[in-house]
Amino acid sequence: MAPDRSELTVLLAAPRGFCAGVERAVEVVELALEHYGPPIYVRHAIVHNTRVVADLEAKGAVFVEDEADVPEGERVVFSAHGVSPQVKSGAAARGLQAIDATCPLVTKVHYEAIDYAAEGYDIVLIGHAGHQEVEGTTGHAPEAIHLVETPEDVAALELPDPDKVAYISQTTLSVDEADSVIDALLAKYPRARGPRGDDICYATQNRQDAVKVLSERADVVLVIGSQTSSNSKRMVEVALDHGVGAAYLVDNAGELRDEWFEGVGAVGLTSGASAPDILIEEMISALDERYGPAQVRTVEVVDEQMHFALPKEIRSLPLARA
Question: How far apart are CA 41 and CA 77, in angstroms?
């Protein structure tokens, strides 16, 4: 039974939800489906959100985990997380018509890896083992890259030349998490080179900054995102690290639990960079119906204005020009 209450304040984070890279990737698949018709094959989930994937499947997208699962000669979209050169060459060998929806910020990290490797550096990649983005980045310089996740991993590193060390990062890490690893790396290798600009995605950082503000004002924080979404998981961790009583990652409003709201007057609400805004709307309706009336107040932390051009394979299509 839902807890009794007279009013619930919902503090709605801004920015939240889709980042420019996710908007671009989803639009790529939608435009390809509209122009060419289904099926359009997509290697890996285009973004890490179950609603987005289900919606695109309903329109005719077919998600596969390996380019070898795509019938020869068909069209395949590479997800926003990026792929290795080996994946691209494998797709070409099968005669696949590839459309690369890799986020431009991930591509930036790929170029950093290529450049550092060409200059003879050992590259420390800060990221999570098994994540699609990490696998794609590693594939651009497999002989040079050393993956670390924690300061303890840095302590275990034994690199041959301390003057030839460079570091790059997965784009969806917690800013604080990445900084702790970088600090440990620079303490051990003071001459280590870093990227010219921060590798952590602007949207990841903006959403984490907004979560920090929510954590100061709310009794509980809800982050809408899928369990496969790295940036969404990091937002929950940031909320807990900044003093909120409780924080939960939920895929949708159906995952709400009444016990989370006992004695709660203010709920912070946000969503990961791969979660569509419809999930926020559904969550507000559920909070209002079950625990309300809900008074929604927007907490604007950053005015986010960013847009990425569509990949060349899509820009020329009539629907894209329109």
Answer: 6
Which is it for the CA torsion 188, 208, 44, 78, positive or negative? Answer: negative
Separation of alpha carbons 178 and 200, rounded Å: 8
Residues 6 or more apart whose Cβ sits within 8 Å of residue 143: 117
The answer to whether residue 135 is catalytic is no
Say what the alpha-carbon torsion angle 140, 39, 19, 204 is, to the nearest 10 degrees.
-50
Task: Write down the catalytic residue from 23, 30, 133, 313.
Answer: 133
DSSP state for residue 193 in the 8-state scheme: B
Token reading at 67:
């380019």
**CA–CA gap between residue 65 and residue 81 (Å, rounded):** 13
Amino acid at 251: D
The string of pLDDT tens digits covering residues 34-92 is 999 999 999 999 999 999 999 999 999 999 999 999 999 999 999 999 999 999 999 99
For residue 55, the 8-state DSSP code is H
Tell me, what DSSP letter sits at residue 200? S
Contact status, residue 170 vs residue 131, Cβ threshold 8 Å? yes
Q: Which two tokens stand for residue 52?
A: 């987005």
pTM, whole model, 2 decimals? 0.90
With H, G, I as helix, E, B as strand and everything else as coil, classify residue 125: strand
Q: How many CB atoms lie within 10 A of CB 195?
A: 17
